[in-house]
Every structure is written in C-alpha cells, then in structure tokens.
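Progress against Task 2.4 (sequence-to-structure conversion) is shown through the following example record, which the project officer requested during the mid-term review.
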Amino acid sequence: MSKKDQKPLLPPREGECDEEQRLREAINRHAGSMLSALDAAIFMRNAPPDAQRARHLARGHMLDFALKAMHARSLAQTTKPDSAS
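Structure tokens generated for the chain above:
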C-alpha cells in the first residue's frame, strides 16, 4: 500500500486552529510512515492472516495514541495555569 492509498489516521476537524492542524498533520505523516514501513516488512499484500491482524491491531494502537495526543493538546490549552496568581 503506497502512502497515497492510505487514509489519514486523523481527519481534519472543523474549526481546528493552526497549532492543532500542525499536530494532526505531523501525527498523520509519522503514522503513515510507520504503517508503510510495517507493510513493507511483512509484505502486507501476501502476509499471513495473523500478520495482517497484528498490523490491524498496531494501527488501532496508533489511532488510540493519536486521539490521546490531540486530547492532551486540548487539555493543555484549556487548563493553562492562571498567570495572575
């Protein structure tokens, strides 16, 4: 599977700020690179079913990371310490 064939891990979110967009794009870029490397390593098109299942699980874990990373960024923006205190 080429990088052009892969769907981005995280789709654009309506109303996202520039910082969110940069983080999302970086996560998508790195996730795509990791999945491409894995696909090449296991010869994805001819991989046995167990290897394909493991790859699917790996992608799921990357999606969990991506969602948690975006959530952490959001929390950092909404819970900034009060600079007046």
